[in-house]
Amino acid sequence: MFLHVFTGRLKCLTRDKLMLFWTLLFPVVLGTFFNIAFGNIMNITEEFSPVKVAVVESAGYQQNEAFRQTLDAVSQPGDGQLLIVSVVGGEEADRLLKSGEVDGILEVDGEVRLTVKESGMNQSILKAFLDEYAQKSAAIGKLLRENPQADLSGLLDDMGKESFVNEATLSGAKPDTMLNYFFSLLAMTALYGSFWGLRNSTDIQPNVSALGSRRSVAPTHKMTAVLGDAAASLVLHVAEMLLVLAYLIFVLGISFGNQVGYVLLTCLVGSVTGISFGTFMGCLFQKRDGLKTALLIAVTLFLCFLSGLMMVDIRTYINLYAPVLSYINPAALITDAFYCLYVFESHTRYFLNIGILCGISALFCLGSYLLIRRQKYASI
Amino acid sequence: MQVFKAFFKVLRASFPSTVVYLAVFIGISLIFSGNVMNNAVDGFTVESVDLAVINRDGDTPLLRGLTDYLSEGNHLVDLPDDSERLQDALFYREVSYIVLVEGGFTDRFLAGESVTLDAVKVPDSTTGYYCDQLIEKYLSTARLYREANPGLTEEQLTAAVAEDLAIETSVTLKEYDVNTQGTPNFVYYYQYMAYVLIAMMILTICTILMVFNQPDLRRRNLCAPLPLRSVNAQVTLGCAIFTVACWAMLIGLSFLLYGKALLSFAGLPMLLANTFAFALVSLSIGFLVSSLVKSFTVLSAISNVVSLGLCFISGVFVPQAIMSPGVLTAASFLPAYWYVKANNAIGSLAVLTSETTGPIWTSILIQLGFAAAFFSVALFITKQRRVGNN
Question: Is the pTM of this model over 0.90?
Answer without folding.
Answer: no
